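Entry
Fold in token form

___
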Amino acid sequence: MKIVALCGAGVGTSAILKVTAERALKRLGIDAEVTATDVASVRAVASDAQVILSSSELVEAIGKTNADVIVVDNYFDLDELTQKLEVALG
């Protein structure tokens, strides 16, 4: 399974989201590859992703996708992300 964490530049915020997602997936007992990327690269990187994690501001930039797009309000909130991933993947 592939999950993509998206932010504007693909460095800081997406790296934080990637780490939080990995912790949430571990909590759920789900094995997945989590990749951090930027808006410019999201279509290529997420072409085979099952889930894209994003802020509400960047959802439009994702464009057409077969992946589930999860809007994350607080990138540090492990409980929020665990719950949203459980719903999307459960």
About this structure: The mean pLDDT is 91.
